[in-house]
Amino acid sequence: MIIARLIADQASIGNALETRLERARNALAQAGTPVAFAGMLDFCGDVLQISLAEGEPVAVADVLEQHFGACDLLVADHEIEIPRLFVSDMDSTMIGQECIDELADFAGLKEQVSAITERAMRGELDFPSALAERVALLEGLEESAIERCLDERIEPVEGARVLVSTLKAKGCHPVLVTGGFHHFADPVAQMLGFERVVGNRLAVAGGRLTGALDGAISDSATKRRVLEEELERLGEGARVLASGDGANDIPMLEAADYGFAYRAKPKARAAANGRIESRNLTAILKLLNIPQNEWVEG
């Protein structure tokens, strides 16, 4: 069984909804995954649910995108449930910035560091090497620049607080796991309501960054390992939601029941069975069929 949900925004799709659905039906049938049922959800009236007897979630998501365009969607191989675990990336997912790029701006190196970040997130560079290269460029920067950067540059993505608060109210355990830094992740987690934080630590000496990391690197393997640790603690049958935007999030997205690529780089999108193209993370709550009157403001 395959359950697919997508946000069918009437403002953008309008009268073309039936036409697009019919074309998607035909394409899915030709691919050997005929549609058994299609209809709008009761609680979230702009969410279209499509049921299929069989299929592969990512492949079904690809077909739906071909006919509905880049949209917010989720495809699962079971009845969709509220997850008990939420593991998320931070940069460009829970917040709208890449912290290391913004911090580099205080050293006059944003353009250089941003170019490395972009290539790493696209999977064109080895993440640990790219991280070490960028951190080395920050050698000598005053530690106080981090607090200024937090205050002046770092903002949560729209809907991030509501997403985390609502999932927690439904009994879900939220974990922030990042290839970024605890200097940023700890206050962001407190602001948004995450209950555990895993990330890298910038080495500091004499009030300045040394250009190195303090401790082991938090990378793609770390993200998946943290997900598996938390899932083992919760026990068999617990559904897992994950969100991220870059290539280093792929193992985590693939391991989750609901792996959401948020406005993601192509490799991450291609690996995910959930995709968010709008900016507001409350789209995930709609796709989980949580009524808006049950959303919790952060």
Automatic annotation (TrEMBL):
GO-annotated biological processes: L-serine biosynthetic process
Transmembrane segments annotated in the record for this chain: none
Swiss-Prot/TrEMBL cofactor(s): Mg(2+)
Residues at the active site: D89 (nucleophile), D91 (proton donor)
Record flagged with keyword Magnesium: yes
Pathway participation: Amino-acid biosynthesis; L-serine biosynthesis; L-serine from 3-phospho-D-glycerate: step 3/3
EC numbers on record: 3.1.3.3
UniProt keywords, alphabetically: Amino-acid biosynthesis, Hydrolase, Magnesium, Metal-binding, Serine biosynthesis
Reactions mediated catalytically: O-phospho-L-serine + H2O = L-serine + phosphate; O-phospho-D-serine + H2O = D-serine + phosphate
Record GO cellular component, one term: cytoplasm
Family: Belongs to the HAD-like hydrolase superfamily. SerB family.
The protein, known as: Phosphoserine phosphatase
Organism field: Qipengyuania pelagi
Gene (UniProt): serB
